[in-house]
């Protein structure tokens, strides 16, 4: 791979009953960040974790907790997640078209790093104002599967968005999420992604460290 990328194992694929030890195992294997999928059962048809779990995990690790908010009302999560010790707060552009300025300001005021994500069907142009605005996001998360579940097939057509973003913003953090593993990480990195989320390919591998070392 050309550029050195960060790897963030998606804890959605971990054994939630042993979250702290699973997180430590990933860090021991070389993970840079821990990716935390927060789903509300409304924006996506799945329900996962919220601020109480982030707070519990924070007691066990100093790692960067990269929170991806697949929720309809991200504003409601800013204060609780800030208190819980989240590091990154990435919301979806599809539910924040009218209030992203306020959202970004509040995320930053709680000491978190703002990011915006978009679904495979959302045009990339929708995030440009958030990268260039008065209160810019610091990362764009390009979903490479439909959000909601781990273990889906990578959608190569989403790479056009990564390429367009990288061309327009040479120093922006661009994260990709969904179906990333040994056969797709290179494609995403060559397109310009520098933060790779990988769930099932890392947790399902006999040697997680080997998959993590690919990024
Ligand atoms: O955001 C997600 C689902 O909405 C997950 O982070 C993502 O799908 C990772 O899982 P996998 O690598 O198994 O595809």
From TrEMBL:
Entry keyword Thylakoid: no
Cofactor detail note: Binds 1 divalent metal cation per subunit.
Cofactor: Fe(2+); Mn(2+); Co(2+); a divalent metal cation
EC assignment: 5.1.3.1
GO biological process: carbohydrate metabolic process; pentose-phosphate shunt
HAMAP family: RPE (MF_02227)
Protein name: Ribulose-phosphate 3-epimerase
